[in-house]
Amino acid sequence: MHEAMLYSQKKGTPQVVVCGLCNHRCTIPPGRRGICGVRENRDGTLVSLVYGKVVAEHVDPIEKKPLFHFLPGSRSYSLATMGCNFRCLHCQNFDIAQAPQLGDGTISGQPRTPEEIVARARAEACASISYTYVEPTIFYEFSRDCAELARRAGLANVYVSNGYMSPEAAREIASWLDAINIDIKAFTDDFYKKVCRARLQPVLDNVRLFHQLGVWVEVTTLIIPGLNDSDAELKGIARFLYDLDPAIPWHVSAFRPAYRMTDRPPTSAEQLARAHRIGVESGLHHVYQGNIPGEGEDTICPSCGGTVLARYGFMLKGQAPAKGQCPHCAAVLAGVWE
Ligand code: SF4
Fold first, then answer.
1. Is any atom of ligand 1 closer than 6 Å to the C-beta of 90?
2. What are the extents of the domains in the chain?
3. pLDDT tens-digit readout, 161-175
4. What phi and psi, each to the nearest 5 degrees, are found at residue 114?
């Protein structure tokens, strides 16, 4: 049993707890779990049911997160436990993310210690550990213990996140996190409520907060035909990022029907190119297309327009530039390059 962090007893009813890890702030009576399905109240103590129970573990290129301006070309030891605090109808990893709700509540996974995770990452010559595939906030305690050891071993730490952690959790996480990719899944609260059972504003607040706290931030939007892909909505996301920092990379990725969203077609190459164009015309320095390899994947220098780093899918064509310096005009591009 691993006691959870960031919770409190409810005033007047000490057996009931309030979880402060994410913006759902679940009130959990004894014997019950929060929305994520992996934090349970046991007689007034909130416990993490997923500590050290790893259900997915792979060595990925960092480009797969996607992070294009963070140690490009490096390998990232990537792991997940079960569970998620969102209920996205189009979840690509629902078999592990939604497992606590879809099954009988059993939490499974290979037993791992933080020491084992860091040792494996080093043995695989990884430069970082990525907490990914499901929302990593829900296995915060395990990710934190791995991350602190990883830092001491010279490894970086990466979250691939829906950005729904509470502000107090975000500040804790930022103290040991090096980079984060946050989904802005749409630019309307209506989408977040109906498709994800969450809200938009906390996500935007966390994009801003992680950026302010000095964590390297990239943003991803899955372009879903007819749901979040109007010009106005895409311009809204691009404008938000531009106002925050035009150097924040924006990844617009192609949707594929999955889980409970099989009623619409995959994103076409033309639809993806339109989203890309909107980002560029909005003034963003780095806009990338994802999930349809071959277009819009190269890093272009915002100063001279030359190609700094060409890619195909997750593969680099050539070496990442030393210190992020453009080989044509010597401008230094935003990111963490070495
Ligand atoms: S992490 Fe979020 S969803 Fe899970 S129990 Fe805590 S507040 Fe609820």
1. no
2. 2-48, 53-324
3. 999 999 999 999 999
4. -55, -40
